[in-house]
């Protein structure tokens, strides 16, 4: 080795060869090696730091997602509560509309269940024509004619969203979207709502004679217009899945003087079991109601009115 020089000797079968490398070259190579090692260490540390940051970001994202789900769940429950209160306001408004009729009712305390059917209704005097006339005016039968299944009945049940007991004011029929809905009695379209109606969604209200009303909720399309008179069996709407609904169905209600009734006895009411409704729905003053309807039927059948109708 010579001063400031570095000699490398390589020997093989062909002989020996010597290579002289300046001392500075040796230092440059050493620096390059150290630089590569430094870059490797820096990259390793940087990647570790980046991975830790990514992990922290993922943890924060998971926490934010959990918070979002909690807030979204609370929002759904609050929305359901708001819609439930809106439904209650709708009921209250209907009761206010019928307040005069309610105030005018008799305050008799006698329990109608103590009266026999014959005492309440003189069935022997009711003709077939009068029965048909009654059933033309008072809601009866199921408002849909295709196959259906009853998914919820009238009365108390556990709310599917709020998970608490509440009053279900109607009966639900599970049917496909677009199933025709027919009027169960003569009446007039009192409300046809295509906008937001709380949990009811798109809805129709029919006002019938003698304080009866029927509600049809979660509709897809309304056929009748507000103020339009409808006949029993007339197409009024098509079922849907609007409003607060867990699936396609028709929500059907019957109310009398602002009070919701169990629709089932009315949907089962036919000419064959004509007297059944008087026993199953004893809260209605059937005697005075049928007396009035029969008088109207007799007036309608008078020769003078019949001749005028023919003209």
TrEMBL record:
Keywords: Coiled coil, Membrane, Signal, Transmembrane, Transmembrane helix. The chain crosses the membrane at residues 28-51. Residues 47-102 form a coiled coil. Residues 167-263 form the M23ase beta-sheet core domain. PANTHER family: L-ALA--D-GLU ENDOPEPTIDASE (PTHR21666:SF289), PEPTIDASE-RELATED (PTHR21666). This is M23 family metallopeptidase. It comes from Helicobacter ibis.
């Amino acid at each position: 080795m010579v001063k400031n020089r570095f000699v490398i000797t390589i020997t093989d079968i062909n002989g020996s060869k010597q290579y002289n490398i300046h001392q500075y070259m040796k230092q440059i190579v050493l620096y390059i090696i150290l630089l590569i090692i430094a870059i490797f260490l820096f990259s390793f540390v940087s990647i570790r730091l980046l991975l830790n940051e990514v992990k922290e970001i993922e943890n924060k994202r998971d926490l934010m997602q959990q918070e979002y789900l909690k807030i979204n769940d609370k929002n759904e429950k609050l929305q359901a509560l708001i819609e439930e209160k809106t439904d209650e306001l709708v009921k209250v408004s209907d009761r206010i509309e019928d307040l005069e009729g309610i105030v005018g009712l008799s305050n008799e305390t006698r329990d109608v269940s103590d009266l026999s059917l014959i005492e309440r209704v003189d069935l022997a005097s009711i003709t077939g024509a009068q029965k048909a006339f009654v059933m033309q005016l008072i809601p009866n039968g199921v408002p849909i004619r295709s196959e259906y299944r009853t998914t919820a009945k009238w009365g108390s049940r556990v709310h599917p969203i709020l998970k608490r007991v509440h009053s279900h004011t109607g009966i639900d029929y599970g049917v496909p979207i677009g199933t025709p809905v027919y009027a169960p009695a003569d009446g007039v379209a009192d409300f046809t709502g295509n906008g937001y109606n709380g949990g009811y969604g798109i809805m129709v209200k029919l006002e019938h004679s003698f304080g009866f009303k029927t509600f049809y909720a979660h509709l897809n399309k309304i056929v009748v217009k507000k103020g339009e008179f409808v006949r029993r069996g007339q197409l009024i709407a098509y079922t849907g899945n609007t409003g607060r609904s867990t699936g396609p169905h028709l929500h059907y209600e019957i109310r009398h003087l602002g009070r919701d009734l169990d629709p089932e006895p009315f949907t089962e009411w036919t000419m064959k079991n004509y007297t059944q409704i008087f026993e199953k729905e004893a809260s209605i003053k059937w005697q005075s109601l049928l007396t009035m309807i029969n008088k109207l039927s007799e007036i309608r059948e008078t020769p003078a009115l019949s001749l005028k109708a023919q003209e």
